[in-house]
Amino acid sequence: MDTKNQRTIEYLDPVSPNTDKKLFVPAVGDLKGKTIGFLTNGWASYNAMGARIEEVFRDRYGIKEMRTYSIPTSCAPPEGLLERVAQECDAAVVGMAN
Amino acid sequence: MSGLVSARLKAADDFGAAFTDMYDRGFTDGLPVIPPTEPAVRAMLDAGGMRPDELIGVIPPEGGPATAEKVAINAVMSGCLPEYFPVVVAGMRAITEPKFNLLGLQTTTNPVSPVLIVNGPIRTQLKINSGRGCLGPGSRANATIGRAIRLCMLNIGGCPPGDVDKAIHGMPGKFTFCFGEAEEESAWDPFHVENGFARETSTVTAVGGQGTQNVYAAFLDPLDVVTMVADAMACYGSNGYLRAVGNPLVVFSPGHAKIFADAGWSKQRVKTELFERTKIPRGRIPRSRQLSEPVYTNFADDEMCLLCPDADSIIIIVAGGPEAYHVTCIPNFGTTLYSMKEIK
User: Fold this and answer.
1) Are residues B95 and B87 in contact, defined by beta-carbon separation less than 8 angstroms?
2) CB B11 within 8 A of CB A16
3) Which of B56-70, B231-245, B286-300 has the lowest mean pLDDT?
4) Is A9 in contact with B11 (Cβ distance < 8 A)?
5) Among residues B14, B45, B207, which one has the least CA distance to residue B117?
6) What are the pLDDT digits (tens) for A57-84?
7) A25 φ, ψ to 5°?
């Protein structure tokens, strides 16, 4: 009995606390002079969106470079790709566009 | 046994109210669940002989650690009996193998879901249905083992439908999809034996299936049966053709398996006949611009598009009622390969 006339049961939380700290990195902040990676998995819609985003990133935010990395459609990134992106870029965006 | 570390939540001690509480917190698939009380979770862990902090796998997209405790909690919720827990654990190990591409399954617009196939003596011990209606309702083991995997994907992987699970339509098999192979009724070696396991070993296999396609193929000539089945498999909108990868799954009844075996057809022969008939000339697929780029995009009109890389990639399971009437085809997501784990 937990509160007046109200029986309660206690159960265990089924949700996992996310302890994979690799998923959390500090925000990149100001984009000026930064190299931005875009990961695309082959959706043609990305080609148009990516080009426009690159334009905005260059003209409005002054990025140094945008690099595009390909992931086969519907696949996980090839081994070592994410590490390469992390080495070569200041920030990265998953440009799935589907 | 070390302590359980999960947060303790409270709900009114009334079945309907407790379900509503868990539903409102986003813990369910929409169907009623059993409240995972500490004694129930401990019973599940005891049945598996596992410590609560044992790590079974990591579930994308959130990277949630699937500890034995969390998996047991979700198994209780799904309605599993404690003795089902080793199958659930093996199933979790199977779906977290990198080759299964669980991140893709969790987040894709495709309706794909893990399809679990159980082999070995544990099928009879747990009364896992491998006979009539094995893909449908009625068996607690089939229903709750498959559902436990789904709840783990939801709660441990952080993948609520609509928000993170982007399936455009989804499909009913995303609630649960688990069955056994009718090994005793089959004329061929069961799937786990085909994969190098002893017949006395129990295994669970995860396959990335998009749903079921029924084929009425009440023929007595094996060639006619494979012709009908291959026609259903050769749906050129099937994901397999996009990259010519994956494991299309075909479930034959014991009656159909007998027709093949009586005619001297091995399982390998059936796979080969199916594979050859699922090749599609590029010219049959429209050439206008697509939103993604399949591997066949620039093929010549007479070049063949493949559903999967080779005949061996087709999985054949014998299950269901005995009549040689219906065959179930389970198309593959494509970029996922089946994963088989021993049940310990």
Assistant:
1) no
2) no
3) B286-300
4) yes
5) B207
6) 999 999 999 999 988 776 778 889 989 9
7) -130, 155
Distance CA B335, CA B115 (A): 15
User: Pick from A8, A14, A73: which is nearest to B27 by CB?
Assistant: A14
Q: In which band, very low, low, confident or very high, does the pLDDT at B40 lie, cut at 50, 70 and 90?
A: very high
DSSP E strand stretches across chain B = 8-12, 55-59, 64-67, 113-119, 178-180, 203-209, 213-216, 249-252, 280-281, 304-305, 315-318, 326-330, 339-342
| Selected residues 204-243 of chain B with any CB under 8 Å from a CB in chain A | 239, 242-243
Across the interface, of A6, A22, A75, the residue whose CB is closest to B12 is A6
**Amino acid (1-letter code) at residue B100:** F
Pinpoint the alpha helices (H) of B120-266: 122-125, 140-155, 191-194, 222-233, 240-243, 254-262
* Phi-psi group of B244: left, alpha or beta (phi > 0 → left; psi -120 to 50 → alpha; rest → beta): left
Nearest-angstrom CA–CA distance, B250 and B328: 6
Q: What span, in angstroms and rounded, lies between the C-alpha atoms of B147 and B157?
A: 14
Pick from A14, A17, A76: which is nearest to B36 by CB?
A: A14
Contacts of A81 in chain B (CB under 8 A): none
Q: Which residues of A touch B (CB under 8 A)?
A: 2, 6-20, 22-23, 42-45, 72-76, 98
Tell me whether B39 touches chain A (CB under 8 Å): no
pLDDT (mean) for B215-222: 97
Sort out which chain B residues have CB atoms less than 8 A from A13's CB and list them. Answer: 6-9, 73
Residue type, B271: K
**The pair of three-digit structure tokens given for residue B141, joined into one six-digit string:** 């083991």
Residues of chain A with Cβ-Cβ distance to B103 below 8 Å are 76
Q: Evaluate if residue B174 carries a pLDDT over 50.
A: yes
C-alpha B123 chain-centroid distance = 16
Q: What is the pLDDT of residue B1?
A: 46
Strand order from edge to edge, sheet including A35-40: A65-70, A35-40, A91-94
pLDDT the model gives residue B2: 54
B24 touches chain A (CB under 8 A): no
Using a CB-CB cut-off of 8 Å, the residues of chain A touching B335 are: 72-75
